[in-house]
Design a protein that fits this description.
alpha/beta, TIM Barrel
Length: about 400
C-alpha cells in the first residue's frame, strides 16, 4: 500500500480552447478554418456552458484540485478592448470550483492567442510581452482573491517546437532563429508576469500566491550509446527540458515547479548538423514498450528519473499534466497507477511533490489531431455531449479520496 500525505493535491486538468467550444476570436479558430482542418474544434465539449456539470463530476470523483486555463481571445477579442462579461464568466468558473472544495490552478496562456495578437506577428513581436502583461493584469485584478496557484505559460518549448521549428501549428514558421526569439519573449513574459502577479497580491493585501510555468519534460533515451547520441541527449535535455527552468530560476521567478510528463523520445542522430542533434529520433522500431493511441512510448521510469533531476532546484514540484490517450481503459488505469508509483518513489527520495493532476478530465480537442485521441477520465459522446466517467476514473477516485494506492 502506498500512502500520500493529507493535503496532497489530486485531480485533473483541462485547457479552455480544447474544451469550451466556439472560441471564434482565437488564432487557432482562424487557422482551422483557413486550413480546412478535418476535425475543427467547433463546439469542443461545450464546457463553456456545462462547466458546473463537469465540476460536479470532478467532485464526485474525489478531486480536490483542477487545472484550467483562461482563453485570452475571449477576454480581449480586440486589442485593448476587454470583455467584462467574459472575465465574469471565468470568475464564475473559479467560484464554482471553490464551492465544490476544489483548488483552482489557473493557466494564463495555453497555446492559443487572440487573432489580433497573431496578426501582429504574435510572440515574435517586440510588443508581445507588454500585450500579454496588459491581459494578465486585467485578469488578476478580478480573479486574484480566489486563486492561489497561477501558471503563466503552458509548455513554452512545446509551443516553440510545434509553431516555430516543425511549423505544424500556427503561425507555421520553420526557423530556429525565430524560435529562439519567441523563446526569449515567452521567458520575459513569464518573468514580468511573475512580478506583476506578486505585486497585485501585495497591493490587495492577499496571501502570496504560488506562480510557475507548466514545463513539459520528456525522457530522452539514446537508441545507441555512441558519442553523437550522447551529445544529442545533453543538448535536448538542455534546450527542451531545463534551459527555460534554469533561466526562470536565475530570475527568481518560480515559486514551485509545474511539470507535464507523457513519454520518452528515442534519440538516434543521423548527422552532426544542429537539426540532426536536436530532432533526429529512432526510425527502426527499436522500442518494445506499450504505446498510447498516438504512438508515444509509455515510460513511467522517465517520470521518476526526471523528478529526481529536479531536486537540485529545491522547490515544491506539482505535476500539472500526466496522461494517456487510448481506447483501452484498462491501459489508462495501468498508466495512472504506474506513474503514481513513480511519484511516490520520488517523494521517498526527497522530491517535494505537492500534487498530481491527470490529463485530462474530459475527452477533448487535441489540437491538430482533432477529437480522435481520447485522454479523458470522462468519456464525451460528441453527438449528445453526454459525460460518462470511465472505470479508470473511478479507480483513480479512490486514490484521490483516500490518498492511498492499494496493491
Amino acid at each position: 500500500m502506498i500512502q500520500f500525505p493529507k493535503g496532497f493535491l489530486w485531480g485533473a486538468a483541462t485547457s479552455a480552447y480544447q474544451v469550451e467550444g466556439n472560441n471564434i476570436a482565437s488564432d487557432w479558430w482562424e487557422w482551422e478554418k483557413r486550413l480546412g482542418q478535418k476535425e475543427p474544434s467547433g463546439l469542443a465539449c461545450r464546457h463553456y456552458e456545462l462547466y458546473a456539470q463537469d465540476f460536479d463530476l470532478a467532485r464526485s470523483l474525489g478531486h480536490n484540485a483542477h487545472r484550467l486555463s483562461l482563453e485570452w481571445s475571449r477576454i480581449e477579442p480586440e486589442e485593448g478592448r476587454f470583455q467584462e462579461a467574459q472575465l465574469k464568466h471565468y470568475l464564475d468558473v473559479i467560484l464554482a470550483l471553490r464551492e465544490r472544495g476544489i483548488e483552482p490552478v489557473v493557466t494564463l496562456h495555453h497555446f492559443t492567442n487572440p487573432l489580433w495578437f497573431s496578426l501582429k506577428d504574435g510572440w515574435h513581436n517586440e510588443q508581445a510581452v507588454s500585450s500579454y502583461l496588459r491581459y494578465t493584469g486585467r485578469a488578476l485584478e478580478l480573479l486574484s482573491p480566489h486563486v492561489r496557484f497561477w501558471v503563466t505559460i503552458n509548455e513554452p518549448m512545446v509551443y516553440v517546437y510545434h509553431a516555430y521549428v516543425l511549423g505544424i501549428w500556427p503561425p507555421q514558421e520553420r526557423s530556429l532563429a525565430k524560435g529562439g526569439k519567441v523563446t526569449n519573449n515567452l521567458l520575459s513574459a513569464h518573468v514580468e508576469a511573475y512580478k506583476l502577479i506578486h505585486a497585485i497580491y501585495k497591493k490587495k493585501g492577499l496571501p502570496m500566491p504560488m506562480v510557475s510555468i507548466a514545463q513539459n519534460l520528456q525522457a530522452f533515451v539514446a537508441c545507441k550509446a555512441n558519442l553523437r547520441n550522447r551529445i544529442a541527449l545533453y543538448l535536448r535535455n538542455k534546450c527542451f527540458n531545463f534551459d527555460f527552468i534554469d533561466n526562470a530560476m536565475r530570475k527568481k521567478s518560480l515559486d514551485f515547479l509545474g511539470i507535464n510528463y507523457y513519454s520518452r523520445s528515442l534519440v538516434d542522430t543521423r548527422g552532426w548538423g544542429v537539426k540532426n542533434l536536436l530532432l533526429d529520433t529512432c526510425r527502426d522500431n527499436h522500442s518494445d514498450l506499450p504505446k498510447n493511441s498516438l504512438g508515444w512510448d509509455i515510460y513511467p521510469q522517465g517520470l521518476y528519473d526526471l523528478l529526481l533531476s529536479l531536486k537540485r532546484y529545491d522547490l515544491p514540484v506539482f505535476i500539472l499534466e500526466n496522461g494517456i490517450c487510448t481506447d483501452k481503459d484498462s491501459l489508462r488505469w495501468n498508466f495512472i497507477r504506474r506513474h503514481i508509483e513513480m511519484v511516490h518513489q520520488a517523494r521517498q527520495k526527497g522530491v517535494n511533490l505537492i500534487g498530481y493532476l491527470y490529463w485530462s478530465l474530459l475527452d477533448n480537442f487535441e489540437w491538430d489531431k482533432g477529437f480522435s485521441p481520447r485522454f479523458g477520465l470522462i468519456d464525451v459522446d460528441y453527438a449528445t455531449y453526454r459525460r460518462t466517467p470511465r472505470d479508470s476514473a473511478n479507480k483513480f477516485a479512490e486514490v484521490c479520496r483516500t490518498g492511498t494506492l492499494n496493491d
